[in-house]
Write a structure and sequence with these properties.
Pfam families: ABC_tran (PF00005). This protein is of the alpha/beta class. Bound molecules: adenosine-5'-triphosphate (ATP).
């Protein structure tokens, strides 16, 4: 029987203090023909509105699984996941996802690709077009709006994919290794660009990355995970001043934080930051 008075959304009405995501004792088990995988266990995490959170950890520690659960694309096997105080009920226009494989449709122009989510969600066309123009302008793609993806560099395609993720004006941006396929220079350039875009827009952002420096430079909080089964080793507040830029990486505190995270990943035990 469905008892509405037990609905967690009624126990936690949304307020400005309500986390964008509240994750409590979440575990995820995959059952496949080849066996059972405990991908996540005992995950507790609160993501405050407007914050930038990165998740780092060795391959297979369940980072993508956690992101898919937050996106409403996978169900947790156990535990509670609330978005702004309400139980998740699938994907939402308020939560955009950007993947490493940015999958721009090759037969559409950059502008059409970026507009697509606004059309899928039936958003007003003129306001969406203006927003898309502004996003393309902000990311230096205005002159390429009518080009096809094949005519753009890898970095430009990634920018277009970021614009597309922002086109519905989501409250949350989930990014799964968005710069993974790019060369080191483009990657650094784009992560600084993402930092500038985020500092302007202040969307809640959750980034999965293998790059510890990138995680520390961008984030308010870095979540370090360990594999088999995936669990959180430590949640590290990044107490570096904002706004941040290339020079932030030269601060002694930056090195201290990145070294601490490296130690946690390569020998996952408590280290004092
Ligand atoms: N759809 C699925 N079916 C079965 N097992 C899965 C599925 N998705 C993930 N897994 C398993 O769950 C575990 C966590 O995978 P996940 O992709 O979340 O890790 P990850 O930390 O994102 O890895 P990577 O950094 O390599 O992308 C792995 O052991 C993986 O094999």
């Amino acid at each position: 029987m469905n008892l509405p008075y037990l609905d967690p959304s009624l126990l936690a009405p949304p307020t400005t203090q309500t986390p964008i995501f509240h994750v409590s004792r979440v575990s995820k088990t995959y059952e496949t023909a080849s066996g059972t995988t405990l991908a996540l266990t005992g995950i507790d995490l609160d993501i405050p509105p407007g914050s930038f959170v990165s998740i780092v950890g060795a391959s297979g520690c369940g980072k993508s699984t956690l992101l898919k659960i937050l996106a409403g694309l996978e169900d947790a096997t156990e535990g509670v996941v609330l978005r702004e105080g309400r139980e998740l009920d699938g994907p939402s226009r308020d939560v955009s996802i950007g993947f490493q494989e940015h999958v721009l449709f090759p037969w559409l122009t950059i502008e059409q690709n970026v507009m697509l989510p606004t059309e899928i969600y039936g958003m007003p066309a003129e306001a969406s077009r203006q927003r898309v123009q502004e996003l393309l302008r902000m990311s230096g793609l205005a002159d390429f709006a009518r080009r096809k993806p094949a005519e753009l560099s890898g970095g430009m395609k990634m920018r277009a994919a970021l614009c597309r993720a922002l086109s519905t004006d989501p409250r949350v941006l989930l990014l799964d290794e968005p710069f993974g396929a790019l060369d080191a220079l483009t990657r650094e350039e784009l992560s600084l660009e993402l930092l500038r875009m985020w500092e302007k827009a202040r969307k809640t952002a959750l980034l999965i990355t293998h790059d510890i420096d990138e995680a520390v430079l961008l984030s308010d909080t870095v979540v370090v995970m360990s594999p088999r089964p995936g669990r959180i080793v430590e949640i590290i507040p990044i107490d570096l001043p904002r706004p941040r830029n290339e020079e932030t990486a030269a601060l002694p505190r930056f090195t201290q934080l990145t070294q601490h995270i490296r130690k946690l990943i390569f020998s996952p035990r408590k280290e004092a930051a």
